[in-house]
């Protein structure tokens, strides 16, 4: 187990290094620069700004300097938000996205797993068919459509819920619903398929034949084995939802990290783009690492090598 953890950590570090390298060179390969959109800026002022942020240095020297800085947790200053460090912007915006994403993950798990079990236990019945239809719609419909429909009906027509900001608990309902709708639907379908496969195994029939109660056989044997594919999916799902959907944050005017990332791309804020990308990549790798360890704890039969 220890050897596997060390191996995974080294792979995680290598992955983040590759992401940082690719992001740096791709950003610098894009035509133009961060000051192309500046109005009435003289060549002298542009040269002074480039010298201030080190953009006048050879590309490889910029790369070495940047990689050295991020090893110390320094993502550099924002090229557009003057006087602000990228790491400070990320740390101030990420908690907002993480709170919405965390609630969405809980909703997806708490709703998706039991509903998937209900569909599997009622295979072929009306409830199973209804759940499959709703889950299929949840997977097929894009998040911006869910945002627009929920905002139109619950915010504009019925006026039940606020549509902008995150002031009260009511402001969280529609963003969390829009963010959790797809993962909930996916978990329902995945849980239903996995549960049906487990219920058809020989050890389940043997347990029932030996007089094991339905409750014990379902929760001790079936659910524990059927939930393994869900654990695998929870890794990337959590990383995605914790950062917050960029579209959801834009539609509901949520001051999270997603909005900052989109703005940095529009403004060609290279430092912000690279810092956010590396941060999200590190988060994704770390969560997947934790999922692998939890997978082993849940199913001791798995041989980690």
Provide an overview of this structure.
By secondary structure, this protein is mainly alpha-helical. Helix content is 75%, strand content 0%.
How do the helices and strands line up, and which of them pair or pack?
Elements: H1 2-29, H2 43-52, H3 59-70, H4 86-121, H5 126-140, H6 143-157, H7 170-199, H8 202-209, H9 214-226, H10 228-243, H11 246-251, H12 257-266, H13 270-298
What value does the average pLDDT take? Answer: 80
- Compute the number of helices: 13
Oligomeric status of the shown chains? Answer: single chain
Largest sheet: none
Structural class: mainly alpha
Q: H/E series, N to C?
A: HHHHHHHHHHHHH
End-to-end CA span: 8 Å
Report the portion of residues in β strands.
under 5%
Please compute the radius of gyration using only Cα atoms. 24 Å
- Please give the number of β-strands: 0
- Report the uncertain regions: none
Overall, the morphology is: flat
Helix content: over 70%
């Amino acid at each position: 187990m220890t050897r596997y953890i060390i191996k995974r950590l080294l792979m995680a570090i290598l992955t983040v290094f590759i992401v940082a390298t690719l992001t740096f060179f791709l950003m610098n390969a894009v035509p133009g620069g961060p000051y192309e959109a500046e109005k009435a800026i003289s060549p002298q002022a542009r040269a002074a700004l480039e010298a201030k942020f080190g953009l006048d240095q050879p590309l490889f020297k910029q790369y070495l300097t940047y990689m050295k800085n991020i090893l110390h947790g320094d993502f550099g200053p924002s090229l557009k938000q003057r006087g602000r460090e990228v790491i400070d912007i990320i740390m101030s915006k990420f908690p907002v996205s993480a709170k919405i994403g965390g609630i969405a993950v809980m909703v997806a798990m708490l709703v998706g797993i039991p509903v998937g079990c209900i569909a599997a236990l009622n295979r072929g019945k009306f409830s199973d068919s209804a759940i499959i239809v709703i889950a299929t719609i949840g997977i097929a419909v894009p998040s911006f459509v869910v945002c627009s429909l929920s905002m139109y009906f619950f915010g504009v027509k019925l006026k039940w819920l606020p549509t902008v900001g995150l002031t009260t608990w009511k402001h969280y309902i529609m963003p969390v619903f829009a963010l959790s709708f797809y993962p909930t639907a996916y978990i329902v379908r995945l849980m239903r398929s996995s549960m049906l496969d487990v219920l058809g195994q020989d050890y389940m029939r043997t347990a029932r034949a030996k007089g094991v109660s339905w409750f014990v056989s379902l929760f001790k044997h079936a659910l524990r084995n059927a939930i393994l594919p869900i654990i695998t999916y929870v890794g990337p799902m959590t990383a995605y939802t914790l950062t917050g959907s960029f579209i959801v944050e834009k539609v509901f005017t949520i001051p999270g990290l997603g909005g900052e990332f989109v703005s940095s791309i529009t403004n060609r804020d290279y430092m912000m783009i690279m810092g956010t990308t590396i941060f999200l990549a590190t988060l994704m790798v770390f969560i997947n690492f934790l999922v692998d360890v939890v997978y082993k704890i849940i199913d001791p039969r798995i041989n980690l090598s």
